[in-house]
Amino acid sequence: MQVFIILALISITVYTLGFGITLWKEKQKISALAVFFLTLTVIVLPFFSIL
């Protein structure tokens, strides 16, 4: 089950990062920075889980 969770988090991170890059290329810098912050949160948050 942990492998499934890790794969899901990696896929969500890659998708979100790609969306941020797309926004950056479309000159929507503030939105891209918000998405990059969301990506960083997705990467860091599992390390603070109680499980």
Integer-rounded radius of gyration: 13 Å
Are there runs of 5+ residues with pLDDT below 50, and where? none
Distance between the ends: 13 Å
The proportion of strand residues reads under 5%
Alpha-beta classification: mainly alpha
* β-strand number: 0
Helix content: over 70%
Query: What's the pLDDT, averaged over the residues?
Result: 89
Report the principal-axis shape. Answer: elongated
Question: Care to describe what's here?
Answer:
This protein has 51 residues and is an all-alpha fold. The protein is built from two helices and no strands. The two termini are 13 Å apart.
Write the layout of secondary structure elements.
Elements: H1 2-25, H2 29-44
Helix pairs in contact: 1-2
Summarize it.
The chain has 51 residues and is an all-alpha fold. It has helices at 2-25, 29-44.
List the main descriptive attributes of the protein structure presented here.
51 residues; mainly alpha; 2 helices; elongated
